[in-house]
Design a protein that fits this description.
This protein is mainly beta. It has five helices and 22 strands. It starts with a strand and ends in a 27-residue tail after the last strand.
């Protein structure tokens, strides 16, 4: 396999892999921006080490054979007189949809159409956009693009039962269903599994939810008796909202905040093992067996070796957001606002990244 690391500046594009002693490519389901960290050899005195200009905003691409793994831009760098390595951090284009804010009003619009509208307004290319068919009515003011999209898909998730993840694949924004491809890899004890550990926790458990009025009067209670007997009462309160099924919301809170079981595995590298995908695990000593979903992933290339660290969950997880406000039927019907020009074009330098 041929790994390549390209740096693109105003002077052109060059492969700097030989000057990068270690490369780390990582991501997690709560972050739509994947990260690339690497060190770049540099010396003011050693003429055998070429001087490479790596300014902030320069484009960085990581590729394996013909597969582009990462395309992004340098957001930070650290130099020290005590080190011959410049530490560089780059983010992919997810960085921009988490930083840029906008205001929109959508009435009876699906998450997929909301996503395409935002991408069109900001000049963002789209890849695969998961279809839900669920219509959303929501107002957003000074809200990040990521929160708008993720809120729409969170609301749809409560009807479809699917979990969704926003990520960039090259320069294209995609919204995928978590684990929709099935197992992308088999991690087994006698082949590619290096180590495994399991952590269980009830730290964030909710086993009873009270539905209260705006005055604080308890209107209804939803509880899981078996969890209360085992772990004691861990109560949450939510405010009643007219027209919404609050019991369903209460049940969802209890279901999503039970015993957390996270598995950490170290395995031989596989570029398909990224957050939002699923892997099959077989490890006889710990008894791990079955399909697990990747919450976060770290890929490391160092000293000619490639390996992964994966945090897995037996449940599909989603970065649930609930930004904006519900548009009532009494309000005037409006569509998503128009954005003059294409702000996105100023975020990227043509030909870079």
């Amino acid at each position: 396999m041929n790994l390549r690391l390209f740096l693109t500046t105003s002077a052109g594009t060059k492969d700097i892999l030989q000057l990068a002693p270690a490369i780390t490519w990582s991501g997690e389901y709560t972050q739509c921006a994947r990260t690339l960290d690497f060190g770049l050899l540099s010396s003011p005195t050693d003429t055998n080490i070429p001087a490479i200009d790596c300014p902030l905003g320069a484009g960085v691409t990581l590729a394996l054979d013909d597969m582009e793994l990462f395309s992004g831009f340098i957001v930070s760098r650290t130099k020290s007189t005590e080190s011959s390595v410049i530490d560089i951090t780059a983010f992919d284009r997810g960085f921009y949809i988490k930083r840029n804010k906008a205001s929109y009003q959508f009435k009876g619009t699906t998450p997929e159409d909301i996503t395409r509208r935002i991408c069109a307004d900001f000049g963002i290319e789209t890849g695969y956009i998961a279809q839900t068919g669920v219509k959303i009515s929501r107002s957003f003011v000074a809200t990040t693009l990521y929160h708008i999209i993720q809120t729409a898909y969170t609301l749809a998730s409560r009807e479809t039962g699917e979990k969704y993840l926003v990520r960039f694949e090259g320069s294209k924004l995609s919204v995928v269903k978590v684990g929709a491809e099935g197992a992308v890899a088999l991690i087994a004890g006698e082949s590619n599994l290096m180590s495994a550990s399991t952590t269980e926790s009830i730290e964030n458990m909710i086993n009873q939810v009270q539905i209260v009025s705006k005055e604080g009067t308890v209107r209804d209670t939803v509880r899981d008796e078996s969890l209360i007997r085992l772990y004691g009462l861990l109560q949450e309160q939510i405010r009643s909202v007219d027209g919404e099924d609050m019991r369903a919301e209460a049940k969802r809170l209890i279901e999503n905040n039970g015993v957390i079981q996270r598995i950490t595995v170290h395995n031989l590298g596989d570029v398909h093992c990224v957050a939002g995908n699923a892997v099959a695990v077989e490890e006889p000593y710990t008894g791990l067996a079955g399909l697990f979903y990747i919450e976060n992933d770290t890929h490391t290339w160092k000293n000619g070796q490639y390996y992964n660290k994966l945090v897995l969950n037996y449940r599909r997880m989603m970065d649930e957001k609930e930004a904006g406000a519900v548009i009532s039927a009494a309000k005037k019907k409006v569509s998503g606002q128009s954005v003059s020009g294409s702000p996105w074009q100023y975020l990227y330098k043509p030909g870079e990244g």
